[in-house]
Design goal:
This protein is α+β, with helices and mostly antiparallel strands. It has a single domain (about 5-134), classed as Alpha-Beta Complex (endopeptidase fold (from Nostoc punctiforme)). About 35% of the residues lie in helices and about 25% in strands. The protein has four helices and six strands, in the order ααααββββββ. The protein has a six-stranded antiparallel beta sheet with strand order 1-6-2-3-4-5, with helices on one face. It is globular and about 35 Å long. The two termini are about 15 Å apart.
Length: about 130
């Protein structure tokens, strides 16, 4: 599988769907989970889809499962890399967003993110707090 081709197609499909940003359905976590599903065939978010409407609800669900936050949860599912400098195209990054932590997909020196107002956007890779390889 050519990750560059897959990522390009995934981003184009995401843009074409024109879905409104909605927590638990079409947010940064689901954006990353959909990408992981596409690459691996495993839906890491199967227990979370359509199950929260606020960040507080999502956090409570993570805590019920014994995780302190989304990063710890993803580290339980994927191999965490040792810093953003090891990231490759298609890896998943955790960043500080406007409303709190958010996930994105590494696209070279930038990370593709789903912004609540403008839709797809990018941020610099060196802003990533953690990175995982699906």
């Amino acid at each position: 599988m050519d990750r560059a081709v897959e990522l390009h197609a995934f981003l184009a499909e995401t843009r074409a769907r024109h879905l409104p940003y909605r927590l638990g359905a079409h947010d940064g976590a689901m954006f990353a989970a959909d990408w992981i599903l596409r690459l691996t065939g495993t839906d890491v978010a199967s227990g979370f889809r359509q199950s929260y409407r606020s960040r507080a609800e999502a956090q409570a669900q993570l805590e019920e499962l014994g995780f302190t936050g989304p990063g710890e949860f993803l580290s339980d599912c994927l191999a965490e890399l040792n810093g953003w400098s090891q990231a490759r195209l298609g890896d998943v990054a955790l960043l500080d967003g406007e409303g709190g932590l958010c996930f994105g997909i590494v696209g070279g020196r930038l990370v593709h993110v789903l912004h609540p107002v403008i839709g797809l956007d990018v941020v610099r890779l060196d802003a990533a707090r953690k990175v995982w390889r699906p």
